[in-house]
Amino acid sequence: MSGADGLACRFGQNLRRVRKRVGISQEELGSRSGLHRTEVGLLERGERVPRIDTLLKLATGLGVRVDSPLLEGIVWEAGTTTTTPGAFAFSTRSDVRDRAAAFRAGQVEEGDADQLVSEGRKELEARTDRALGED
Description:
Oligomer: single chain
CATH superfamily of the largest domain: lambda repressor-like DNA-binding domains
Helix content: 55-70%
Number of domains: 2
Shape: globular
Radius of gyration: 16 Å
């Protein structure tokens, strides 16, 4: 996965997972968020990337913070030079584990520690969600 397609797909997966965890239908989420149920469906299928106002409406409708769990596993990696643009990256549980092991072995720069801790925290929250009966 990469670019806008990967972003839309990952966001859609996160949105569906959180909506099911909350135990509401697409129609109910649409009503709570001020969106039409078809918009919720398009977002969940990864056919659209939400605008910032839509993201805020969805988070409020679900009763969650915007940064987690809706954006779980989605990161923006800055470009390395003015000619190399940044790109979206999509982390998985194994990515976090591998980076944590590299950090413990002293193979990761200290500046990456904050991001690693943040990703680890998100992974722990995701595991907790799954343990509590999520999909």
